[in-house]
Amino acid sequence: MDADTVSxxxxxxxxxxxxxxxxxNVENNIKTIGFGDGLSFGRNSTFQEYFxxxxxxxxxxxxxxxxxxxxxxxxLTQNKKEHLEKHPVNAKTAWCQLCENKELFNRSIAExxxxxxxxxxxxxxQLQDGI
Length: 131
Hints:
Elements (H helix, E strand, L loop, with lengths): L2 H72 L3 H9 L10 H4 L8 H20 L3
């Protein structure tokens, strides 16, 4: 082999190493970006899932309160009117236990839901019994 051939082969080998190094950098960057995107997507989808769940539960409770307010307005008798005067419902918070008791923020979601359900069931029973 002459000197020119050896020089060409060395340059070719050097170019291959540079190409491999560049490719490795590109591959590492793609993996890093993909990992970051995956984390971001997972976090956002989890937040959205729990937001959707809370929105549904809130809507159901608000709908029940609205239904109660509407039926109460339409069917007010003297007894019901007196009862509502004795036991007013704060229109801003309705029966929302989180709105009335800030300590509930320190409890688990299951405990808060259980307490809210108990209050809703009690109030619904009173309404069904004609207060």
